[in-house]
Specification:
This protein has one domain. It contains seven helices and four strands, in the order H-E-E-H-E-H-H-H-E-H-H. It has helices at 2-10, 32-55, 74-82, 92-101, 110-121, 158-170, 183-201; strands at 16-19, 25-27, 61-64, 126-129. Residues 1-16 form the signal peptide.
Length: 202
């Protein structure tokens, strides 16, 4: 079953998105516009993070991804070496370049699998209050961004709702909620979000 799970992750385009009139599942079609929307959402999240921290430097809800220790990548470095590829983990930029180069012309899913295995070697990203850390610790390693938050999906993530309220206060559309002025309360919200996110991954 583990291999089935890995195959499903490595072959997302083979997952059925609809059933045709003949009763057979059809593969989902991933278009360039999907990637463009993802990129714009990342940029929106980064822009909002900058804006709320500018107005509320001690009580903004952010998301960080700590830089992994090089030894955490040992499994993927060894696996890639066995397949004839070198993975450079000295920086996120070097890692991204290595992953871009880990391609097999005869296996279109090889690169996807390598990327999934690399992600499994990393620590999880976490929510935190901006007042609890110095700005140098805000960075998101996986996205190579010095600051990040979740803003674009308030319909499915409570963190985004909190950030929407902060942004509304930052641009003068609404007063800052009293709960947002309480660093200990924000820390509790962040901890709760992290626990629930972790439990959802189990």
């Amino acid at each position: 079953w583990v291999w089935v799970w890995v195959w499903v992750w490595a072959h997302p385009r083979c997952l059925p998105s609809r059933v045709c009139v003949c009763g057979q599942p059809q593969p989902a079609q991933v278009m360039e516009t999907n990637q463009m929307v993802e990129e714009l959402m990342l940029l929106a999240n980064i822009s909002v993070a900058r804006e709320i921290v500018k107005h509320f430097p001690s009580c903004s809800l952010l998301r960080r991804h700590p830089t992994p220790a090089p030894r955490q990548f040992d499994p993927i470095v060894r696996a890639a070496a066995a397949a004839g590829f070198e993975i450079d983990v000295r920086s996120s930029k070097a890692l991204a370049a290595s992953l871009d180069g880990a391609v097999r012309p005869d296996d279109v899913y090889f690169n996807k699998l390598v990327r999934i295995m690399t992600t499994r070697c990393m620590t999880q990203a976490v929510y935190f209050g901006s007042g609890d850390l110095s700005a140098s610790d805000y960075h998101h390693y996986g996205l190579a961004s010095p600051i990040y938050t979740h803003f674009t999906s308030p319909i499915r993530r409570y963190a985004d709702v909190v950030v929407h309220r902060l942004l509304a206060a930052a641009i003068g559309l609404a007063p800052l909620p009293g709960s947002a002025r309480d660093r200990a309360g924000l820390r509790g919200v962040a901890d709760n979000l992290n626990v629930r996110h972790h439990n959802a991954q189990m």
